[in-house]
Batch of 3 targets.
Target 1
Amino acid sequence: MTSRKLLFTPGPLTTSAAVKGAMLHDAGSRDRDFLGTVRKIRERLLTIGGAAAPNNGGAYECVLVQGSGTFAIESVISSAIPREGKLLVLVNGAYGRRITQMARIHAIETETLETAENRKISPKAVEERLAASHGITHAAVVHCETTTGIVNPIEEIGAVAKGAGAVYIVDAMSSFGAIPVDLAATRVDFLISSANKCIEGVPGFAFVLARRDRLLEAKCRARTLSLDLYAQWAGFESDGQFRFTPPTHALLAFYQALLELEMEGGVSGRAARYRANHTALMGGMAGMGFEAYLAPEDQSYIITTFRYPSHPRFRFEDFCARLSELGFIIYPGKLTAEPCFRVGTIGQLSPPDVEALLKKMRRVLEEMGVASVTA
Ligand SMILES: *Cc1c(COP(=O)(O)O)cnc(C)c1O
């Protein structure tokens, strides 16, 4: 067994003992108890998005999808857009580019609107592109672009998409559960997130919160069998079951994670802890001389990108490996142009854990002979 390490990453994340403990059961995938858990998970996820339950007049449905977050995005992209449709992808990082890539694989006509990785997507620019282009039926954007940690203005972009009559798809993978999202106010048609990000479950499945009318339109549009979003939903509606083997243990863990989210005070309670983590991180990193990539006003409390310091003895691979030996996992960067690394402040972590990481960083830098990263 490997030793316990704290994950300062964009996911999978550190989880609580009770979340891990919830997996010490073998649930039958068609058993009544298990199906009850699946039903409660679907209802609670809608509540987090501010939507009423479907049987209570709500306009949204929750569809669980096996696999990592990318599978659920691909489920939406490959199921929601008709053969004659056209997708506009708003890109300011690697996750936006990934959506473009999957649309191309499915031979979906696609346009991209690229923004620099250190800039938020401008609703005005989106409005202009939608007005200038012909035939765009769908628009997709990433909420927190985990490449940098920047948060795009999804409500304003949603209003613009709505104005142009485009179906609106939001990848809220690394934000849902930690940054408040009101589905209706955001005018989102399909929002995607996963089990192992801010809800603090373990990997194994992802979920889509979809407007029912849009979901119904997706009937018979799917380009794959296993990622057919409509069929997956219809399966849940008919017998409460996943169409194919569900990640039973991950679902049990997730239900526990949802209870813990509620006990923490919901999204606002969780946001407060993550914000405190982030504040502790920024203070400590600045103290060591590390420079954040984003301007402070664009920086989220989810994950932070730091530039490699110019000190000749700083080697990221070495820095990262030594921290790992001490029980702390940080993450490489994902920027196209600049060498950088990332530190996440999400998951079952609190400010004392961040302080512990900072202390080890100072020790490792000293061992590497990097007295000050700015030297
Ligand atoms: C984590 C993440 C994904 C999905 O990644 P998987 O590795 O497939 O779980 C997609 N978009 C964003 C913004 C993410 O942070």
Target 2
Amino acid sequence: MTDEPTPAAADLPDLAPATRLVALGREPAAPGAQVGAPLVLTSTYHADGPVSYARSGNPTWSAFEVALGSLEGGDALVLASGMAAVSAAFALLPHGGTVVVPDAAYNGVMATVGDLEASGAAVVRRVDVTDTAAVVAALPGADLLWLESPTNPLLEVADLPALTAAAREHGVLTVVDNTFATPLLQRPLADGADVVVHSATKYLSGHSDVLLGAVVTAPTDSGRALHERLRRHRQLGGGIAGPMETWLALRGLRTLHLRLERACAGAADLAQRLAGHPAVTRVRYPGFGAIVSIEVVGGAEGAERVAAATAVWVHATSLGGVESLLERRRRQPNEPEKVPEELIRLSVGIEDVEDLWRDLSAALARARP
Ligand SMILES: *Cc1c(COP(=O)(O)O)cnc(C)c1O
């Protein structure tokens, strides 16, 4: 025994992401203290503490926020869903302000932007995010640049360092939806973004059992000011995350590195095999991540036949879980028209890749009528 206190993992510099995923968001080490993160179910707290009411704070939220914030290199706020995080970030836009958005991205974001435009709450400029010059040309006079990279489901990749630098020059805030890449593959704050948005429903929690979202802001003076506005939005908007959902997401987050490594390896392998399949007319795969989008022969009906014919792959919307999912995206009413009717989004899970291939290639044989 020594009198020196043991340092907490959170205080050790230079921990690798895999270690931070496992070690952060735990109670301080003390004899008899719990090792698991706290699941705190209470609506209120004894008076005169740091938090008085559970719409403002919860120890389970803090545990998740410490872990996610450290991975993204910023300060995280957990919210009830990815769309709650999207709404919080759009609340940073002044009324009547101008937002530059991808011409195709997550359909909930596209619908939100359309509603803001229709009500006169925002002016919207839609751009091809792969065309850096076109995005930069849309920035003068704008208030917010909304990016998603890779985009859902076209897997278009934006040049984040170039675009955030240009946005900063024009005094435009940059928000990046990092749901597809996760902080293990891309850290937008380090690339110059002001706010990161997550649907933690997907890879971060990883088991298709909760909806959850988060926003993360940079550890700078301007980032901290944005953080306070977002925190106030959460507290007053009131659509807060449940402690149980947050605890499950933190439990899932502990294995993000293992799940993602396996899913990414499977996606790279399948993307290559799919390119040689006679029923596949186009494979979209950005070279990283675990989503592959394919276009198939037989149009929308062909794609529906494929999606209905798998046994291992689950025919369902969503992505980022341990189980492989597939869906023809245009069956979603808000899906942008830039997404081809015959596009199937494949979310590669962590099953045996040979089983995935056998199941999918057999289903693809049904694409032709
Ligand atoms: C799913 C998703 C969202 C919305 O998240 P929810 O948790 O479903 O509300 C936002 N952005 C992207 C890129 C998504 O895939």
Target 3
Amino acid sequence: MTEIFTGSFTQQEPIPEAGIAAANAVMQSGRLHRYNTSGDEIAEVALLEEEFAETVGSKYCLAVASGGYAMTTALRATGVRHGDKVLTNAFTLAPVPGAIAAVGGVPVFVGVTEDLVIDLDDLSAKLDQSNVLLLSHMRGHICDMDRLMAMCDAAGVTLIEDCAHTMGAAWNGVPSGRWGRFGCYSTQTYKHINSGEGGFLICDDAEDMARAIMLSGSYMLFEKHRAAPPVETFAKIKYETPNISGRMDNLRAAILRPQLRNLAEQAKRWNARYRVLEEGLANTPGLRLIPRPEKEEFVASSFQFLLLDWSPETVQSVLDRCTARGVELKWFGGAEPKGFTSRYDSWQYAPSSRMPASDRVLAGVVDMRLPLTFSLEDCALLARIIRAEVSAVYQGDVAAE
Ligand SMILES: *Cc1c(COP(=O)(O)O)cnc(C)c1O
């Protein structure tokens, strides 16, 4: 019997009842704008910022319209100007080089290792090209942060972290987003908490956060923030900083607050699913699993493996055979950028030289979403299907069928 998977890879869980009730209350009030509060009412957005700062242990937090906006704002607040080079990952998603381009910056791509993290040797060779690194913890894989920080500190390079895939994750006990000058998060539907669109920016420096708040469009109402520096910090900054609106609204904040309270619990559920897949695919000939270092505390919302040094035709054959059995895999090695899988060479506005070692890895990266609507049994079934199809193609059994 050929097993078929029938779940949807893009179906997230519903918004918790408490979030729906809070959203209804906001709508009934009509006060959706974060600064539209009555009397001494505290806006949902201000409360969410306070709660997020507490969750990750940062001094300050700003909720914004998207993860991309959070990164752009961090780059601007750091002082990146038109024409400045910014180091970033060759293996990431389009909003990351896009954020650099949005401030007129020029991405300098750093390679990826077989463990799907930034190649620290390549970074070391390129550190003298820029004084800012926008590090993307792509697909939740965290590099050796102790080594990376030592390198950046020695070279005087400022770190900004893209934590779109690492909300709730940590390296060596320090939360992702707390290593850099800024940590940036997304609350877009496919991330760890879901408001359709949205994001956060965290930092510990008062002037950095004052600039970020002014940039986000605070209309001089920064006193209504809670996870924010004291008003004196804004004395000069409020005149110097342009308003580039990208605020979060109370409706999104209302549905995010209960989800944030559940984050640690959800992380356990995600990782349980991840481990079932990992176990089911262990020792599949031709398939390389991505090691998860002991110092890395991850929050899986997707699963990757490598078909390293396979020909494009054989990888495509695996994808086709899996699709036929209901399993949607994405491939970073395809000739054309498709869905979410664009590569550094697809971003032609940001010219790059070829990185053969990274190209070899990217040509083999297979990626799968792991929504919480999948049960542990679903994950076991997914592993059985992938294992069978990878094995069939690997052993050249296709023709013999
Ligand atoms: C989703 C994502 C972002 C931010 O995305 P938005 O859609 O702008 O919220 C940033 N980096 C990575 C790697 C992402 O996947």
